[in-house]
Amino acid sequence: MLQELGSLAQFQLMAQKQPAADTLSPAKKHILNHLGAEPMVADLLCTTLGVEVSVLLAQLVELEIDRYIVSEAGGYSLVG
What we know:
By secondary structure, the chain is mostly helical. The protein has one domain (19-78): Arc Repressor Mutant, subunit A. The chain is built from four helices and two strands. A hairpin with a 2-residue loop joins strand 1 (69-72) and strand 2 (75-78). The radius of gyration is 15 Å and the shape is globular.
């Protein structure tokens, strides 16, 4: 029974899609343009983008929830 529930949850996660990129705010698009396959730490992103840490972290969380980026030990990178 638990295996069936696990399979159902995994199927539901796979069925979810990213929101359309054209619905992203200019600030989030700007963040995505500065990220790549290699993780970048939030401090460097703040310096590069010229935004406050609190603002950047809120946007990074939203981008991660929407599956545009992933948070790794070395920072943030685009989903592969």
